[in-house]
Amino acid sequence: MGQPFNSEKFRNSLVNYLNHLGYHNPTTSQQPLWQAVCLAIQDQLPKTSPKKAFASRHVNYLSMEFLLGRLTLNNLQNLGWTESIRNKLQEYDVQLVDLLECEHDPALGNGGLGRLAACFLDSMASIEQPATGYGLNYQYGLFRQSFTQGQQTESADDWDRDHYPWFCQSPIPAVEVGFGGQVHSKNGILQWIPDFQVIGKAHDIAIIGYRNHHQQPLRLWHASHPHPFNLKAFNLGHYANAESNAIEAEKITKVLYPNDNHAAGKRLRLMQQYFQCTCAITDIIYHHRQAGRPLAELPKYEVIQLNDTHPAIAIVELLRQLVDLYQWEWADAWQLTQQLFAYTNHTLMPEALECWDLHLFKRLLPRHYQLIEQIDAWFSATLKNHPDKQHYKTSNALLIKGHGKIRMANLSVIGSYAVNGVAKLHSRLVTEELFPEYAKLWPTKFTNVTNGITPRRWLLMCNPKLAELLNDTIGEQWQHDLSYLQSLENHLDNASFLQDYQDVKQSNKNNLAALIAQTTGIEINPEAMLDVQIKRLHEYKRQHLKLLHILALYQQLKTHPDPNLPPRVFLFAAKAAPGYDLAKNIIYAINQVAAVINHDPAVNQQLQIVFMPDYRVSLAEKIIPAADLSEQISTVGKEASGTGNMKLALNGALTVGTQDGANIEILDHVGAEHIFIFGQTVESARQLWQNEYHPEQILANNPQLQDILTLLKDGTFAQGNKQAFKPLVESLTTAGDPYLVLADFASYLDIQNKIDVRYQHPTTWFRSAAINTARCGIFSSDRAIRDYQQRIWLSDAQRIKG
Cα(137)–Cα(204) distance, rounded to whole angstroms? Predict the structure, then answer.
């Protein structure tokens, strides 16, 4: 049961906050009213959660991203107050649905990594796993995306963090964080004297559990300088220098992932990561000691989960604090450190496995560099003394790589007691391809925890009509335990239920069509199949394979019109990193092809393309419930897991995908007849790469592909500009097609033809869609968190006792 809502207290708080904001009644403009409503809701939240005996340690979840999405409706839903607030606002002729649109998505994350972290925080609060999330309080996030003549344009994503009403006061002491300087020895004790220091101040967001009175903090750190204004410099006329310290400090938390294709960007990224980790480690130790516990018992009560390699420097920072601040012996400090950390790997992509330039690292963090050398020496001695040491004579296992690079993924494995991948295939490849030396050395260290998504946001909140249908059909227990969706299978032969299910999907498509028209000016056919590819723009995710399919259909309809071909709306949403030129060129190509096809009366009754700008959580919440087809077509072996595939399948979109990541597990659960699998296997793809794959051989034997690439080269879709899509075409040809787009093209077209046939039989299609909903309960993040509890977060003593 949720916390009871106090109507009178809410009214009084609302009026007080409006007065404080300079407004005097609830009929004022929407933005201040939304802020006042959120603050008034917070007044009713308990200051602390009830104390209970927990089965596992307190989790400290370190992530550079927390892609929360809008929190107001999510919090009302979890509290059980939605109807109460809606009714209260109607007394003032204010509609809650209108008020909710005032909220910007907090710009604290970008992609799947950050959204997974948000789902995990929700689940930890909902199943009452004690936890604190640690991240950075970015001012601007990544960027806001718009299109100018088809090209991606970036602008600052200012989400107005200084007036965000869901922040709550944090009583946490500020943290001093140093950079640069020298390491000195005094009486045999090493002392780091930084030459520049910043202050970390904590801002908490309460993560509210589902109907359980439980909440716990997401702690976000903001960087500032202890002396932001230098009056002496100002009085001497050095006006620009007077605030240089403040500018240098505050840029650490200005932007999520500053562009790092230059030296200054790399330096800033490393500063961000170290700042976050130092604040987190200092806070963890502070609370542990405040509880009256000795440092030696840290692993008994705490675990630090690294969400990818971005926070890996926390391993070295804990070691530094134990050795330098608390005067521990190095060996004892290192042993404790290895008992405290666990590492989640999210990628097999070499470019995503962070390596820091040794000289940059040494200049910025000189004491940490010394400690990394000690860790490297310890690891080398471990290998030297291992009975199978002949298997480890490889540079892949070394912490410090040749050519002056520090491998943060290697540090994460060496410094952690547990390492997990995020899908069964991915976890296998982590041990076989990414870390084979470590898997031989520490076989029990590696495990799998398949990702999950929170059903509160990704069904109950974003798809209320389907949620209502589920409640009416199988009851409400699925909201607490998604495995109860299995009972939906008892209704799959009920024609009335399947019609209701189809009606829900059509209603969601109608709503999305209205949003698309409002956002882009494009009037789509809401009766058409909605074919959706929504994810970060990257070569390995292969949005350009989807583009080739669209061009194949375009050619087909131009040369051999087929009125029986079911109409499709192809919907894309994705951001390309600012420095990723090829990804931007793919966006440009899709937009230019869309501009031609959408205005061609010969094809636009059957083909339409929409690229929705500024993809974010609140937009995904509109797209996912409406989707018919979920494109999960990443190159096999490259997608660790995916969670968009889970969200779409849960909401009744059929998946077309490669045998990769969690697609395999969706296949296992929904059955081969309710998913569309195509393309290479991991083994066949590996053989292609090992045998020097030549895309030109595929082109030579496929006239259709030749014609499609000619369309991209001859200016047809670029007002005659034959160079417009040169980077895209070259990536598929002279650059070697590294992600096997051409190798999978024929298989992809074949499966798409089968999809067309299936979609022409609505009863069959929507029965499969309902089966996807019924069988995807396993992909709840509640289940994933329980897996972490049982496989990773229980202490050794708890596992033995269990």
Answer: 9
Domain co-membership, 27 together with 133: no
φ, ψ for residue 571, nearest 5 deg = -115, 125
Closest CA to 681 of 664, 668, 701, 665: 664
CA distance 511 to 508: 5
Instruction: Give the containing element (helix H, strand E) for 223.
Output: strand 215-224
Residue 179 shares a structural domain with residue 290 = yes
Within 459-494, residue ranges assigned H as helices are: 464-474
Strand partners, 305: 61, 342
Is 769 contained in some domain? yes
Catalytic residue (choose from 58, 320, 346, 538): 346
With cut-offs at 50, 70 and 90, classify the pLDDT of residue 800. Answer: very low
DSSP β-bridge partners for residue 204: 168, 219
Whole-number average pLDDT of the chain: 93
Domain that holds residue 152: 55-70+105-451+787-801
Q: Is 70 a catalytic residue?
A: no
Q: Are strands 405-407 and 355-357 parallel, antiparallel or unpaired?
A: antiparallel
Q: Cβ–Cβ contacts within 10 Å for residue 738, how many?
A: 15
Instruction: List the CATH number of the domain containing 580.
Output: 3.40.50.2000
180 within some domain: yes
Q: Which of 643, 655, 658, 773 is catalytic?
A: 643
Question: Catalytic pick from 203, 225, 536, 616?
Answer: 536
Sign of CA dihedral 644, 648, 649, 651: positive
Question: pLDDT tens across 603-632, in order?
Answer: 999 999 999 999 999 999 999 999 999 999
CA distance 428 to 269: 30
| Domain tally, the chain | 3
Q: For residue 434, with 0-12 CB atoms within 10 Å meaning exposed, 13-18 middle and 19 or more buried, which class applies? A: buried
478 and 369, same structural domain?
A: no
* Residue 535 bears catalytic tag: yes
In the residue annotation, 767 being an active-site residue is answered as no
The verdict on 199 and 296 lying in the same domain is yes
Do 398 and 446 sit in the same domain of this protein? Answer: yes
β-sheet bridge partners, residue 235: none
On whether both 768 and 792 belong to a single domain, the answer is no
Q: Which amino acid is at 161?
A: R
286 and 355 share one domain: yes
Q: Is residue 604 part of a domain?
A: yes
Return the H-helix or E-strand segment holding 216.
Answer: strand 215-224
| Per-residue model confidence (pLDDT) at position 144 | 96
Within-domain flag for 170 = yes
Active-site hit among 161, 320, 456, 535: 535
Is 643 considered catalytic here?
yes
Q: When comparing pLDDT for 26 and 725, which is higher?
A: 725
Phi, psi of 587 (to 5 degrees): -60, -45
Question: Which tokens go with 583?
Answer: 């990804």
* Active-site hit among 144, 538, 546, 647: 647
Instruction: Give the separation between CA 615 and CA 141, rounded to whole angstroms.
Output: 13
What SS3 state is found at 89? helix
The whole-angstrom separation of Cα 732 and Cα 742 is 7
| Span 493-549, pLDDT tens digits | 999 999 999 999 999 999 999 999 999 999 999 999 999 999 999 999 999 999 999
Strand partners of residue 177? 198
pLDDT for res 245: 76
Looking at the fold, whether 82 and 163 belong to one and the same domain comes out as: no
Q: Of the listed 88, 362, 541, 674, which one is catalytic? A: 541
User: Tens digits of per-residue pLDDT, 293-335?
Assistant: 999 999 999 999 999 999 999 999 999 999 999 999 999 999 9
